[in-house]
Amino acid sequence: WVTFLELCRVVKINGYIYINAPSNGPYHGHPGDNWRFYRDSWKALEKWGKLNNYNIELIESYVDTTNKKNNEPWEDSVGIFKKIS
Asked: Using CA atoms, how far apart are residues 75 and 69, in angstroms rounded to an integer?
């Protein structure tokens, strides 16, 4: 959350933020499991940025399921944002 706000701060107006993060994969218990980015994560970050007075817009988001075809357990989640002003 804090890192996203810093990205919103430093990106130029009309600039883009691209984030590629892990999504679905096998669960591994505490303390080793990390927060994953699911489909609703990107809208939540957009809302968080706006709540902190950054005019940021989510332009595209998706979960890449290519790895499933290759029988690999992990998927990538991608969010692309644009700073409007």
From this structure: 11
